[in-house]
């Protein structure tokens, strides 16, 4: 008889965290490591947001707050949704959590029962299926293909829906692929959801402001107003505002759902950091011009990495619409042997050998549900990216 909960047997540790930890350990041991596993910007939180956090401390705003956010922040979130997404919410329809991850988790814990299904397009962020499993639900994985730019079709969504489907979980631009759905592509999906009124939609819009070129971000409740009453629109300040460590995510949706999520949070973490909340308030209400500048910086890095990886034997890398990830295929490397004698039978073999032989840390594709691929986070300097891609090319050229 084991002491640990059987629930833990349904989930696995986060592979992205494992890769980041392994890279840090090797670096601490003196290895020359280039870590391309972490999903966070490489620059500091903007100064005006830092100062807002410091001011909150100096003003004594360091005590417990309302369970899911101070009123001022909820008002700013409502204004953000109106300004950026043409979505109108009252503060009672808003919740603030310790990062977008907690907001998603709260939603699943508040709604899922045994037998309930959650449709998740793959490649997916590694935590999605495990959060569903922890909440007692069943992930239903719908695989998008490289040929379709890692975006699922309306027909795939229609075929995945059953009477047990409770949620469709949607992420655009995507982690890990950077794929972004256009208005028309998203409208095709929302048309299917309109036909199935028992299915709710939860959208992870964390990379909203990292959209490149002519691609225009849109969110499902904006594209199809008929889904407003069964949509939970999730966002946060982590990626766009370089505030990963501040741990502030938020969502808006039907008031009954928000109340249920608040109940879950009241018996887990209670309020998110008070200091983080006031910094997030400044992030949403303060200057926004730097967002476009950051997007241009990441677009340049995307092009650098895509062009370099497509010059590597055995690798095919699509050019995504947003976020700061690429998800190249290594189908041409499978079955070969590395310079040090490692047989590359899976993308995990590839990533492990790449780290050991070149010091470049990436996350293997099986962690995201589609193989054989790997994820590169290009949220680091041009110099590091150039060197990492050069090492990857040498590694691929050494395969035989």
Automatic annotation (TrEMBL):
Keyword Transferase: yes
Record field: catalytic activity: L-aspartate + 2-oxoglutarate = oxaloacetate + L-glutamate
Pfam family, one: Aminotran_1_2
EC number: 2.6.1.-
Enzyme class: transferase
A molecular function (GO) term: L-aspartate:2-oxoglutarate aminotransferase activity
PROSITE patterns reported in the protein's UniProt record: AA_TRANSFER_CLASS_1
Cofactor(s) the protein needs: pyridoxal 5'-phosphate
Keywords: Aminotransferase, Pyridoxal phosphate, Transferase
Stretches assigned to the Aminotransferase class I/classII large domain: 32-392
GO biological process: amino acid metabolic process
Family the entry assigns: Belongs to the class-I pyridoxal-phosphate-dependent aminotransferase family.
Description of how the protein assembles with itself and partners: Homodimer.
Protein name stated in the entry: Aminotransferase
Protein's organism: Cognatiyoonia sediminum
